[in-house]
Write a sequence for this structure.
């Protein structure tokens, strides 16, 4: 089955502004670049993922993706995340995608095993599978089969919104709590938690 991974990327230079108290602009851009490359390499390890599509308005992010052999979609400066993902989903559907996986890049603990678990039931028919963040309110990964089965609702409270959208569409919905997908980084305390977890794995 053809699964397309759609990877939305904010501006590398201006993203993660809430980390400004602990990281400089240059450091935040470098961190986002590392996350982008890490995410694309993990996706590239998965036989179930036939295509990867990076969606961004940042030309540097698009260039990095293309250098790694990944397809890209350039969005305009006023593009809204959910609308951009809807357009990318339609493009994937028209090119034969049977399912789409929405995966942001700010998941520094992401491992191939997490995505393999998320995609394990991808052959079982129409469904929406969400990976919650550690607070149980955000959506850190979303598998939608078939593409376009629901409208995206990324933003505050997205987990409940995606569940409600699946119910309204009559599509089976489930959640997978996976360690590498639960820990995204938005705030300084998130960065501290990630650093602590990474260090504990090295001991």
């Amino acid at each position: 089955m053809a699964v397309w991974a759609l990877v939305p990327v904010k501006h590398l230079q201006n993203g993660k502004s809430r980390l400004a108290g602990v990281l400089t602009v240059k450091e935040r851009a470098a961190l986002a670049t590392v996350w982008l490359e890490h995410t694309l390499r993990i996706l590239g390890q998965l036989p179930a993922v036939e295509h990867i599509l990076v969606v961004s308005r940042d030309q540097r992010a698009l260039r990095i993706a293309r250098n790694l052999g990944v397809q890209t979609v350039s969005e305009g400066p006023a593009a809204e995340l959910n609308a951009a993902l809807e357009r990318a989903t339609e493009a994937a559907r028209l090119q034969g995608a049977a399912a789409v996986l929405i995966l942001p890049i700010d998941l520094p603990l992401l491992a191939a095993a997490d995505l393999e678990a998320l995609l394990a039931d991808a052959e079982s028919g129409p469904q929406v599978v969400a990976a919650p963040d550690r607070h149980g309110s955000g959506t850190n990964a979303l598998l939608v089969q078939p593409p376009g089965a629901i409208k995206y609702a990324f933003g505050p409270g997205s987990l409940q919104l995606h569940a409600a959208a699946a119910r309204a569409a009559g599509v089976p919905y489930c959640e997978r709590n996976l360690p590498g997908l639960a820990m995204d980084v938005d705030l300084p305390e998130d960065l501290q938690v990630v650093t602590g977890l990474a260090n504990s794995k090295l001991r």
Remarks:
- The longest strand covers residues 49-56.
- The helical segments are 25-44, 59-67, 81-94, 112-118, 158-169, 179-182, 188-202.
- Residues 196-203 have pLDDT under 50 and may be disordered.
- Residues 55 and 73 are 5 Å apart (CA to CA).
